[in-house]
Design goal:
Blueprint (H helix, E strand, L loop, with lengths): L2 H34 L3 H13 L13 H12 L10 E6 L2 H7 L14 E8 L12 H18 L3 E6 L4 H10 L6 E10 L20
Antiparallel strand pairs: 1-2, 2-4, 3-4
Helix pairs in contact: 3-5
Length: 213
């Protein structure tokens, strides 16, 4: 075979390969685009979920299934975090003795004694971001808490955010009850369960709370 003929074969094979790669890349792009498409219906559903979420303080005795708890934890870990440090730790609490002990940490935590489930969202000081961004671990834990509240509502559950940090008496008691090291600080303890009573959400929209620059 002449050298020119051999080169033509190699060149043709290379062009075919490039064509296959291009087609595959287009397929991947299409798949990725389909995954990221946000329809007006899905956007409306998200906004409705945000607008209709409200605090639920009275729960049925029914246990929350493990698969729903996993979804709540996934939602919490999807929250934004400074420098992607992810300085959080989640404690799933189903033991009624522990829930009763936590319920006396503040006047607002009494509902924990009747909840079938709670998730303590803790800041992990050993994982916080370095430099001045390290002070935002509280923000990160709060963002995770809000995600869990919204996910609970979307899953047909009710939930209430009870604050722990920065009131020392509250988070120190929670650390003691849950046998936590000093590096794990409970920022919030979320009471979760199936609502026992219907609760109407509050309309908090107030244009007077907005200014435009």
């Amino acid at each position: 075979m002449k050298a020119s003929g051999f080169l033509n074969i190699i060149l043709g094979a290379a062009l075919i390969g490039v064509g296959v790669l291009y087609i595959n890349s287009q397929k991947d792009t299409t798949i990725n685009e389909e995954k990221t498409v946000v329809t007006s219906e899905s956007a409306d559903a998200v906004l409705k979920n945000i607008a209709t979420r409200t605090s639920v303080r009275v729960f049925k005795k029914d246990a929350v299934p493990d698969e729903l708890i996993t979804k709540l934890l996934h939602a919490g870990m999807a929250a934004p975090t400074a420098l992607n440090a992810q300085p959080w730790h989640f404690i799933v609490i189903r033991d009624q003795g522990l829930l009763s002990s936590l319920s006396v940490a503040s006047p607002y935590m009494g509902l924990l004694s009747d909840a079938p489930l709670a998730i303590a969202v803790c800041g992990n000081l050993q994982k916080k971001a370095q430099a001045e961004e390290g002070i935002y671990w509280v923000h990160d834990a709060c963002a995770a808490t809000e995600n869990i509240l919204l996910a609970a509502h979307a899953l047909g559950l009710g939930a209430t955010w009870t604050g722990s940090y920065p009131v020392e008496g509250r988070y120190k008691l929670a650390q003691k009850v849950l046998s936590l090291p000093e590096s794990l600080i409970p920022v919030s303890i979320i009471a979760i369960g199936y609502p026992a009573l219907p609760v109407e959400p509050k309309d908090k929209w107030n244009p007077q709370n907005v200014s435009y620059q």
